[in-house]
Specification:
Length: 282
């Protein structure tokens, strides 16, 4: 009996809230006016967005106007919805209060959206990346396809489309391969322990410099890196164009040139090997 009374009280309170939200019966002309206001707000949002794009995005690589236009467009539409509801006699205050827990959930969701929105604006102002740049952020690499209100869109080198939240992009280090003309790569080459290291450095330097795509300035370098288990390892360091495609292409050219030069010089790249000693001497 008590449960039935409690349910009746809740239903009665809900009906009262609805009565407060909608004051009077809605007339047809009010519906048409509200609809006209809503449509007008959408059209105004489109106009505002296009004006901001034309005003700020004269540089094809800049998208401040696009991001700001999307945000202000949403604000215009939101204001239009509120005004249209006012025409229909709907009170926004009681409506928000009636949402209860649902309103709290929307607030938390809006908080995440706001963080990504602010991060998106900061990315456009600071411009650490542009559409078309090759970047790495976190565990992802690719070409920037778009920066919108919520995400930075990357097209990975495997052909995948990756959507990165703007807040995460701004929080993590950003490596922009396009902003710098040259990048350095190191290739480790292992040689047998009986190799003449001075002669090996000369051979490797000449082979690296002759590879297609290796920059002349700064010049290539070859240094003895470590004494490994089966070989003496030398680091071949060279500069090349910074884009990812050039990195892999030039690395392959250097490896082919180095292997051919070592073969001609009679120098051996050893297989992994172990020396077993039993403790007995002859």
């Amino acid at each position: 009996m008590l449960a039935e009374l409690h349910l009746s009280d809740v239903l009665a309170a809900a009906v009262e809230d609805v009565d407060v939200i909608v004051e009077d019966d809605i007339a047809l002309d009010e519906v048409l006016q509200a609809l006209a206001v809503f449509v007008a707000s959408i059209l105004l949002a489109v106009v505002v967005r296009r004006l901001l794009v034309r005003a700020f995005d004269r540089d094809a690589s800049r998208h401040v106007g696009l991001v700001a236009g999307r945000f202000l467009g949403l604000v215009v539409v939101a204001v239009g919805i509120v005004y249209a509801l006012g025409i229909l006699g709907v009170q926004i205050g009681p409506l928000v209060g009636a949402l209860g827990v649902g309103g709290i959930a929307v607030a938390f969701a809006a908080q995440d959206m706001l963080q990504n929105l602010i991060a998106g604006v900061m990315l456009q102002i600071r411009r650490p990346l542009r559409v078309g740049d090759q970047i790495a952020s976190g565990d992802f690499e690719g070409v920037v396809a778009d920066v919108n209100l919520r995400t930075t869109v990357l097209q990975s080198y495997d052909g995948l489309i990756v959507y990165l939240p703007n807040a995460e992009v701004l929080k993590n280090p950003i490596i922009n391969y396009t902003r710098t003309p040259l990048n350095r790569t190191s290739l480790t080459v292992g040689l047998a322990y009986d190799t003449d290291l001075a002669r090996a450095r000369e051979v490797l330097l000449a082979a690296c410099a002759a590879a297609d795509g290796v920059a002349e300035t700064p010049p290539p370098e070859v240094w003895v890196e470590e004494f490994g288990d089966s070989s003496i390892n030398l680091a071949v360091r060279y500069w090349h164009a910074a884009d990812i495609a050039s990195r892999w292409r030039v690395r392959s050219e250097v490896a082919i040139s180095v292997k051919s030069a070592l073969d001609r010089a009679g120098m051996t790249i050893p297989f992994p090997q172990r020396v077993i000693w039993s403790g007995e001497q002859e």
